[in-house]
Amino acid sequence: MSTNASTNGVTNGAPQKAPQFALSSRMSTGRAMSLDVWSIFNAANLPADCINLGQGYMNFAPPQWVKDAADASLNTVSANHYSHPKGRIRLREAIRDHYSKDFNRTLDVENEILVSSGANEGQYAVWVAFCEPGDEIILFEPYFDQYLPSITFNHGVPVYVPLHPPTNFSDKTTSDAWKIDFDELRRAITPKTKMIVVNTPHNPVGKVFTEQELQKIADLAIEHNLIVMSDEVYDCLLFDQKPHVRIANLPGMWERTITVGSAGKSFACTGWRVGWLIGPQSLVGPTLAAQTRIVFCTNSPLQEAAAAGLEEAEQRGFFKKQVEEYQERRDVLLRYFDEVGLKYSTPEGSYFVLADVSDVQIPEDYPFPDMIKGRGRDFYVGWFLAQELGVSTIPVSEFYCDEHMKIGERFLRFAFCKDLDTLHKAGERLRGITKFYKKK
Ligand code: GLN
Questions:
Q1: Residue 118: CB within 6 Å of ligand 1?
Q2: Residue 199 near ligand 1, beta carbon < 6 Å
Q3: Locate the Aminotransferase class I/classII large domain: which residues (predicted)?
């Protein structure tokens, strides 16, 4: 009997050729295989002492009482085991009690609330449940980059409608100056349009959509029978008394809106991956069916902790205090921008600010790694500033389609979900930016 060494893995010491497997076709969509901005502008690639104002996560811990609840849950038996795919009842009840007044209705914990493994996975499950091949999904640019592959993996077609930045920045310019051209939005709607994705407060602009803007989106959604996915994960971070308007509350919109929330943003625990969806049974039910097949259920102990967070937040005055802290963080960073003459739009919500870096001049012979090459100008500026000043940011062109990249290339996103000391240190380093400004 003859033996073929290569079929049983025996190679007699000769280097074994790795088998090649064809990728699924979805991996060639949605920029899935290209290095994403989070991997490029990652601490591992940046100078060791670089201050991270890039990827949006806090450099402080969740509140003590929320961490204590996480500890306590590990000491119970049930919280170490599977949850109901809908989410643990304690968390669904806490979501009901926290959000019912916001939605002007008593939310039904069995049919109108779904806990997900982070907001991102919940959104993915919505697309699994509702996206047919060729369905068009409207995204406002700059859009949070995860939406794109989540849509294309489900054979959806993203359709991009840019928010238009202000042409001139003054010291009074806020994120509200980024505007939708509603004729452009109307023209983007076709018989194949299935959904509009709204994100308020907005990552990365910090824009808080006004009732008038949301009403115009709602009118189009009703006229064309569209679903609205409203990503409101920064709903606890609005500044300057700006009201948070939920599109689900506008007339006729509850039935067609799924609202997305996040424990990570609310309680400084972005790595816990606990999020939730709120909406009518017709949207939540099929999403539950999809999600059950994707993750079955979300991790149990941290759902208990997120529940404790929501249960006690009001009596502890937590969200009010947190907003004040974030507003102070924002203002500290912005004073440094003012000092060095960086133009920006003051964010009314979220923990991001976009600064216009078109005046930064990069020396012609400056060395860049291959992963930056061929990307937008903002990737070069962001890389250069991280090396030269020791402050990392996120280039905004990543949040645009190729055709509209020019709009985003002017901006870098700075995250201010950091303690004051870190923001001051970053601000002091940013003083060095003026020596790189173009000579006028
Ligand atoms: N939402 C966070 C941000 O925008 C993290 C994104 C991510 O790491 N995928 O910075």
A1: no
A2: no
A3: 49-429
CATH 3.40.50.10800 fits 26-61+318-436, yes or no: no
CB of 150 within 6 A of ligand 1: the answer is no
Distance 329 CA to ligand 1 centre (A): 19
Q: Are 418 and 53 in contact (CB under 8 A)?
A: yes
User: To 10 degrees, the CA torsion angle through 372, 376, 379, 381?
Assistant: 120
Is 203's C-beta closer than 6 angstroms to any atom of ligand 1? yes
Put simply, whether the predicted model's pTM sits higher than 0.90 gets the answer yes
CA of 223 from ligand 1 middle (Å) equals: 33
Q: Which atom of ligand 1 is nearest to the CA of 204?
A: 4
Q: Can you give the pLDDT at residue 4? A: 43
Handedness of CA 51, 53, 56, 62 (dihedral sign): positive
Cα 111 from Cα 86, distance rounded (Å): 9
Cα 202 to middle of ligand 1, angstroms? 12
Q: Is the CB of 262 under 6 A from ligand 1?
A: no
C-alpha to C-alpha distance for 371 and 384, rounded to whole angstroms:
13
Every domain of the chain and the residues it spans: 26-61+318-436, 64-313
120: amino acid identity, one letter = N
Residue 189 structure tokens: 């709607």
The answer, yes or no, to whether any atom of ligand 1 lies below 6 A from the CB of 38, is yes
Mean pLDDT in order along the chain per 10 residues (440 residues): 43 74 96 94 96 96 98 98 98 98 97 98 98 98 98 98 95 96 98 98 98 98 98 98 98 98 98 98 98 98 98 98 98 98 98 97 96 96 98 98 96 98 98 94
Exposure string of 326-336, with b = 16+ CB inside 10 Å and e = fewer, is beebbebbbeb
Cα 139 from Cα 159, distance rounded (Å): 6
Q: Which atom of ligand 1 is nearest to the CA of 144?
A: 4
What pLDDT is recorded for position 11? 53
Beta strands in 113-217 (DSSP E): 113-116, 136-141, 157-164, 179-180, 193-199
Indicate which atom in ligand 1 lies nearest the CA of residue 203: 4
CA of 360 to the centre of ligand 1 (A): 25
Distance 56 CA to ligand 1 centre (A): 5
Which residue shows structure tokens 């679903």? 227
Instruction: CATH number for 64-313: choose from 3.40.640.10, 1.25.40.20, 3.40.50.300, 3.30.930.10.
Output: 3.40.640.10
